[in-house]
Amino acid sequence: MVQYRKTNYVVEADIRGFFDNVDHGWLMKMLSHDIADKRFPEIIEKFLKAGIMENGKFLDSERGTPQGNGASPILANVYLHYVLDNWFDVIVKRQCKGECYLIRYCDDFVCCFQSQYEAEVFKQRLEERFRKYGLELAEEKTKILEFGRFARRNRKTRGERKPDTFDFLGFTFYCGMDGKKEFFRCRVKTSKKKFRSKIKAIKEWIKTHRTMALEQIFKTVNAKLRGHYQYYGVTDNTREVKKFLMQTKWLLFKWLNRRSQRRSYTLDTFFNGLLRTFPLLEPSIKVSLFYR
Length: 292
What we know:
This protein has nine helices and nine strands.
C-alpha cells in the first residue's frame, strides 16, 4: 500500500485494552445481524457472561471477551469488522477524494491516506467512532506520520529530519531507497521491542535448559531459529535476522560455560569446535516483499 499506491500519510493507531472493553450488547447485535439461528447467539451470550476465576475468586464479566479461549479472537474480529472494517469501506472510502487503505490484523491496524487533511479528519472521526462502541484510542500511541515516496524530499526541503517510522506486527517500517538510490522503497526491519523480547525468551530457555544433552539443546535452538527466520526473514531484514543468530550464539557460549563450576569452552573451542559439530541454521530470505 505504501510503496505501490498513493500513500503520503499513515495513521498509526492503538486500541487501549481492546479485549477487555468489547461491549457485549453491541457484539450480540452484530452477531444477530448475520446469524439466522437465534440459539447460537444465545449460547455466545451465556459464554460471555459466564465469568472467570482469578486467584480463586469468581469475577463477573460484564465487558470484554474471555482471554485464553479459542472463541475470543473470533468474537473480537467480528466486533472490529463492524466497528472499523465495514465502516472504513462503506463510509470513509466513499467520502475521501484521495486514495485511502486500511490494513488490520486482529486489533492492530494502520491506515494509509493520500491527503493529510483526510488523514486528520479520519483520526478525529475514529476517536468518535470508537467511543460510540465503548473503545478508546491510546493517545500516546496514536499519531499521523508523513510517510511515502515524497516524504523524504518534502521534509528535507522544509529543513526537517527524516520521516518517522512506525511499528506493525513486529516490524518497523521506514522510508528508504533502492540499492541504486534512484527509487523509493518502503523498507522493514525487526522492531526493537520485538527483538528484545525474542532475545529475552531464547536467553531464558537456554539458561533454564543448559544442563540438557547438547544434541537436544541445539536441536531445539535450531527449531526456534527456524521459526524466527520464517517470520522475520523478509526482504531488507537480513541484517536483523543475522544479528539475532549472533546474539543466540553468544547466549549459548555464555550459558553452556555455566553447566558446571569449570569453564567448558573457549572462544576457539566453541565457535570452531562445538558449532561445527552442532551447526546452527543460517538465516535466509523466506518472503519477498516485491511484486513479481
